Amino acid sequence: MATLVNPADINPRQVANKSDKKALLEAIRMTLGVQSAAIRLNTQTFNRNRYAATGRLADYDQLKDRARQIKEQAIANLPGLVEQLEASVRANGGHFYLAKTAADANAYIRDVLMRHEVKLVVKGKSMTSEETKLNHALEAVGIKVAESDLAEFILQVADEQPSHIVAPALHYSRERITALFKRKFTTDLPLDTGEELTKFAREILREQFIAADAGISGANLIAADSGSIMLVESEGNIRMTTTLPPVHIAIAGIEKVVPSRTDFATFIELLPRSGTGQPLTSYVSILHPPLKATPFVAPGKTAKPREFHMVLIDNGRSRMREDPVLYEALYCIRCSACLNSCANFETVGGHAFGGETYSGGIGGSWEAGTGTLMNARFSELCTACSRCVPNCPVRIDIPWLNENLRQRMNFAQESSGTKSAFGALTGSAPEDRTAPLQKQFFGNYSALGKWGTEVAGLANASTNLPGARSMMESVFGVDRRRTLPPFPKKTWEQLYREESGVKPGALPTGVVMLADVFTNYGAPERGMAAIRVLRAIGLDVVLSPAMPDGRAAMSQGMIETARLQARAIAPMLRRYLDAGRKIVVLEPSVLAMLRRDFKHLLDGDDTQALLAQNSYEPLEYLWKIAQEQGLDLAQTFPAAKCPHGTRLFYHSHCQQRTCNAATQTVDVLRAAGFDVVTSSVECCGMAGSFGYKHEYYEMSMAVGEDLFAQVRQADQEGGPRTLVASGISCHEQLFAGMGREVVHPAELLASTLE
Ligand code: SF4
Ligand code: SF4
Q1: Cis ω before 168 (30° cut-off from 0)
Q2: Model pTM greater than 0.85?
């Protein structure tokens, strides 16, 4: 193994395969200890630039629709397109090979290079060649591979796998690269700046380009009608790899084929903007190989005619195409927006949140599709927060893919009497009872909340005893360092009944607040505050019965349980819709179920579309009514009367933001006269049950650190601000990180009424 430049003394390759959970946990520790600062800096820079670059695209949504349509059609017609491409490549004078497996692809490339007696090949960045482990296959027969991409060059020197699909060495700080080069090369150069490092690497690479007899590239897209290849890069090394040597081999997955060269235009607009936030990368090449220009002839070598080979690789992709869920991953254009906009990825990067080749939220589907399901275990780090979804240029529902992977991994578990009995007792669907106890514990929050509130005194007294916490940690994996929120003595339903005298379930017209189980059993006073606030602007508000909605179960991959719950709650909500009521949901993750995720669970039931159109977050609805009726919110909710003060730090919930239901809260608070500073982190890191899980506690707190830092920054001028958050788990995370009270926006507004 290579000498390590890593205080944790782990080479990322050792923990690349996550089929053993221990590897995942070690990888998290290693990345938190060594890589996190560089990953955060680089991904967050890409992410900020992406927001700016896509924000300047007037037709961003139309471009995404078009990109999705092109990919949908291309994957639907893939066998025909591959045939057409083969004919185009051959008509151009090139060679074409369709490799069924990674080994087939490697063998073909090895044979071509051996036939040409190639001793040194230069290679551009290609995730597909990482997938096939091409370098190892070639080096095994004595062919030296020179990675020509600077980041890949660094990784080759370090003997590490990429940690990011666009910027493979983004986990390296400049200082770590200096230390690595100093250790691996004999040089007196200082190598203290980016320029010095780049110049040093460039001189080595130049020699390789001159000496190489063949070049291997990937392909961002391939046009079936012409055999043209689109290559997007920032260093120019791919252009040299594909044009200098006489032999050029392009290796790509079959999913890269699109019908026509004209389709490239949409992706040229979207790919660099979505990845690094650049309007255009420094080099965009559209090649029509074999090229006509004479290849470079190094001194002492004889000129050879050009030869081009296109190696398309299946390696599980046809199976993915037939898969009812994973087919969607084939639309991926590997832009990395889903990595850079993911708070968990921003904290640990692809050596933890990734497998042997692919990383991030989309990486699990790729590892499962081209490798084995258990290799995709790192997809556990996807909390289904959904922040990546609106940023994906081909609109892939990444959390849904990961929830399905989780379900498959649950199904693959051994069954046991304990798990079955616990599942039967707590309400898991029979299919989900092989899921680990931890998943069934968190997935059946409704049952636990119901029992807990029925015996709140006893439950609260006992759950925080050291013995009980240690039992909960060892049996259910609930980390003992997390403060458990107390069960309320009365549920939201009970409080509502007592205050209004109306039985939950009455149906006059107006608004119905869904008694989501998280608020009903976790924060009933918050629910009552929301009712008071909506009534204060003249709305007629009733409360629905409390029923589980499927959110908790779905996040654990217990999709059949979630389906049963969605099918049970939908008719109850439909009765309110049919009676002309709008549905208001306090917990944003439940709002996201109604607006978006029920489409996966209600199978064509038109209730889902009605729910999507008629459900609201409370302050979103308040703002809508205030706008429509010209209400003076400063008069109704005078900030000056708020006992919490007027200076606020507000953190909105991730799913609230992807439901476009977050900015309205800030609008309402400011209209009422509050001074609001908002957080800009993608996610607080708690993400429902994620932060409670013993194995992910450190990671969850590390993700939260960005949010805590923003609070501290906001506090610097004028002293501590009142912490305000919309999601229950955000409350818990902010409380854990800042150690002070957190209030809901509805509670703030309600406090001004008293
Ligand atoms: S849903 Fe959230 S946690 Fe999952 S990949 Fe997307 S951004 Fe990351
Ligand atoms: S899933 Fe979407 S956002 Fe993620 S890399 Fe692929 S195309 Fe980009």
Answers
A1: no
A2: yes
